[in-house]
Amino acid sequence: CCYEGPRESTNSWAVILFYPDMKGKPCEDHCILQHSNRICVVTLAETHPILQNGRTIKNINYQISNACSRLNNKVSGKSKRFLTDFAPLCRITCTDETEYTIYSCIRGRLLEVNENILETPSLLLEKPSTEGYIAVILPKFEESKRITENLLSREEFESVVSKRSAAESQPS
Prior knowledge:
- InterPro entries: Abitram, GCV_H/Fam206, Single_hybrid_motif.
- One of its GO terms (molecular function) is actin monomer binding.
- This is Protein Abitram.
- One of its GO terms (cellular component) is nuclear speck.
- With about 170 residues, the chain is an alpha+beta fold.
- It has one domain (about 15-170): CATH 2.40.50.100.
- It is about 15% helix and about 30% strand.
- It is built from three helices and eleven strands, in the order ββββββββββααβα.
- The strands form three sheets. Strands 1-2-3-11-10-7 form a six-stranded antiparallel sheet, with no helix packed on it.
- The longest helix has 16 residues, at about 155-170.
- The chain is globular.
């Protein structure tokens, strides 16, 4: 869990938010880039274990269960996908066989998943907040202000990370 600072420019986003320790798993931090038009892009925070220690991605799978593949997403009609805060988006397996589930972090309609990372997984490692994003979600208009309630600002996130780093460096 070493914080190395931002990996790339994210200045075009209205708000950059973080969900640390997803589902209680230390350092499994997610990042939400929220545009002024409410659209949210889900990606990995720079502290996520996948982006640390020179890891290599073996596989990215949008097949969540036998009955659910995010690749079959419909953006209109009755079958459009509405996600809850903890809906799994994909599973990522690294070459060391560690597997991580990436979650939506926010409620909203799944607009798209990034199929480019299936063919070029290194995009996720090299450009997580641009070409290596995981999914695009549109929160309901009436909920768009509330989605930020469970997420942290960069300053709050950096405070969590520094406390985590201090705790890790304490002798046990």
